Hints:
The chain is of the alpha/beta class. The protein has helices spanning 18-26, 38-45, 56-61, 97-107, 126-139, 177-188, 201-232, 236-243, 265-275, 281-291, 293-307, 336-345, 359-366, 389-400, and strands at residues 9-12, 31-34, 65-68, 79-82, 114-118, 147-151, 170-172, 195-197, 316-320, 349-353, 379-384, 403-411, 423-424. A 6-stranded parallel beta sheet has the order 3-2-1-4-5-6, with helices on both faces. A 5-stranded parallel beta sheet has the order 10-9-11-12-13, with helices on both faces. The chain has a two-stranded parallel sheet with strand order 7-8.
Amino acid sequence: MLKLEDVKLAIIGLGYVGLPLAVEFGKKRVVVGFDINDQRIQALKSGHDATLEVSDEELASANQLRYDSNATSLADCNVFIVTVPTPIDEHKRPDLTPLVKASETIGKVLKRDDIVIFESTVYPGATEEDCVPVLERVSGLKFNQEFFAGYSPERINPGDKEHRVTTIKKVTSGSTPEVADLVDALYKQIITAGTHKASSIKVAEAAKVIENTQRDLNIALINELALIFNKMGIDTQAVLEAAGTKWNFLPFRPGLVGGHCIGVDPYYLTHKAEAIGYHPEIILAGRRLNDSMGAYVVSQLVKAMLKRRIHVDGARVLVMGLTFKENCPDLRNTRVIDIVQELAEYNVAVDVYDPWVSAEEALHEYGITPVAEPKVNTYDGIILAVAHKEFAAMGAKDIRALGKAEHVLYDLKYVLTADEADLRL
């Protein structure tokens, strides 16, 4: 059984989750940061994080962290933390491919008494039922006899500079009581907010997947309320502000629900539920409603344009923002793309403007080339889709100046006041 002082750590996957973790550990101990993307590795070696989750100064402070895209660099390590993506496919089914490939990579270097800790969001049981068999097959070692596992779900909130990896309480677990103690002690070296040791790996997996399922359902409720209030001619934001004066009213807001967590994680839980013979009605209903919001936004915009006798076929619309949330460059599972695609169904020419995104990444992920700068007096419709600070700084006057003399301004994120926008969600 490994002792804490003997841990030789590797972080597998250096994205939004893995890099901040590697940097914090790299301030305390020797760490190998591994990623299959050599371009990413070279950028980190040069001292810059393109995700903007870690500043150049923070990268420089992790003086015991070294980066590598060659799997042979993992051979001397004995504890592996896996932080690869867990997306869904086009049919909204869990795609464990990155997790399986990471497990295969680790299996090739796995040794007796090594520990593999997974942080990627999965359904309850995935660690022991999907990942461990891969580790056994590739390494030839026996689980819980010759190697061990742990699970400690990531809780990174991209773009959030207040809630960082060290200041968010960490759930930990292990495949044996002794391993659970070691995993917990390892994370305690960097987590100032403390840890919560779960009773099993499955409990830790379930805790993670319901965190975002709960948020998804809460937002779905507010989205449905917005649809109702819009039909009644009542301002949703005004209603929420009034209701929010009660101490226990939860401060959710309507909107598009995307990103790598809230718009994805519920499908992991529903997949597992259906696999064991239970059809989850409420969770899937919330997902359907949230996934329909892009089409609803476009229908509202089109109706408003028609009322103003603005010809929709061939119109030009500016979509402000493409990322899944404000003030970060993360494009993963952004539902703004639903708006862009729905507008195309009406033969509307769409310009997307987002100062936070990489034009190359937007083209690669969605086939979209964002405009470098929108032109004034150009658009029949403007959709303020993401609440970037740059858009708030522009104010209603400068945003309106981008539109033609007759145009419709739709504010999805309450960046403007009720009287400054023509439509609000």
